[in-house]
Write a structure and sequence with these properties.
- The protein is of the alpha+beta class and about 200 residues long.
- The strands form three sheets. The protein has a five-stranded mixed β-sheet with strand order 2-1-3-4-5.
- Helix content is about 40%, strand content about 20%.
- It is built from seven helices and nine strands.
Length: about 200
């Protein structure tokens, strides 16, 4: 299993969102009874946000868009569901962490940061706050960090490979089901939507 440092290297930096994803991915693998990365589609991850956490899931679980075993549902929720093929066994994990209360000074410095202040004082405070939050996330017991629910779900269809057709406007290839018809010619979506 990859360390948090290895996951941060994959992601490009360490942050609280990545720490959540790391903990969720480890719990998902444990609950699925797996200790190795998904080489194909034996584990499917359904993620309900597009945060830094998803990179940890890719790195730890091995679910990716390219393999077709990472499904994105844009609900803006810190919820992650892992399904095992072919059984349909699943575990749904929702992050339920209560961040330690910020002081008035921390709130003021964060407000300044969100308004564009990048002074040394503000950057140091933001960095320190993120580091404390990451430590809290990485060290919290599972039951203080997340809710884990085992279930059985209907499996999503396996990834499909589609034939490519050539756009009659830009000449680029497009997956056949994504092609449109414009002025009697095959069109990719961007060329179809062009005025």
């Amino acid at each position: 299993m990859k360390s948090f440092e290895q996951v941060a290297e994959f992601h490009g930096h360490s942050c609280p969102g990545l720490a959540f994803g790391y903990r969720v991915a480890l719990a998902g693998m444990r609950e699925m009874g797996s200790d190795s990365i998904s080489e194909d589609e034996e584990i499917v991850a359904i993620v309900e946000n597009d945060s830094c956490a998803v990179d940890a899931i890719q790195a730890i679980v091995g679910c990716t868009f390219g393999k077709g075993n990472l499904i994105f549902r844009d609900f803006g929720k810190q919820v992650y569901t892992f399904l095992k093929r072919p059984s349909g066994e699943a575990v749904r994990i929702s992050v339920d962490f209560r961040t330690p209360e910020e002081t008035g000074e921390e709130k003021e410095l964060w407000k300044r940061y969100s308004e564009g202040d990048r002074s040394e004082e503000v950057l140091r405070a933001v960095h320190d706050r993120k580091a404390k939050k990451m430590q809290a996330i990485l060290g919290a017991p599972d039951d203080e960090l997340m809710k884990i629910e085992k279930m059985r779900l209907e499996l999503p269809p396996e990834a499909k490979i589609y034939a490519s057709v050539r756009c009659g406007f830009c000449g680029e290839k497009v997956a056949e089901p994504k092609a449109r018809l414009r002025q009697g010619k095959i069109a990719c979506i961007p060329c179809f939507e062009r005025e």
